[in-house]
Design brief:
100 residues, mainly beta, SH3 type barrels, 5-stranded antiparallel β-sheet, 5 strands
Length: 100
């Protein structure tokens, strides 16, 4: 007879996949808002849907990744379209944010 009960049940788990955490692991890439916090006051490049891109100094953000950029350049298809003193970028349109 096989033992039964909670102490003898096997727990089946999916194998670890790159980006998944094992119990107790913490990585900075799992907290994108903390990375944004470290980028405050620094130049960033933001690529948006539709081939639009902004480069400027990250002045603020919120939990939805809406961004405020100072001294921003707006590029469309890699061509400078305009320079803005202040740009507010909606987080839903962001593909990625990185240093220039």
């Amino acid at each position: 007879m096989t033992p039964s009960g909670p102490a003898h049940r096997k727990i089946l788990m999916k194998p670890p996949v790159m980006g998944w955490l094992q119990a107790g692991e913490v990585r900075s890439m799992d907290k994108p808002l903390s990375i944004l916090s470290q980028s405050l006051g620094k130049r960033v490049m933001v690529e948006l849907k539709g081939g639009r891109e902004y480069r400027g100094i990250l002045d603020g953000y919120d939990p939805h990744m809406n961004l405020v950029l100072k001294s921003a350049e707006e590029l469309v298809n890699k061509q400078l379209k305009q320079t803005l003193e202040l740009a507010i970028v909606r987080g839903d349109n962001v593909i990625y944010i990185s240093p220039p």
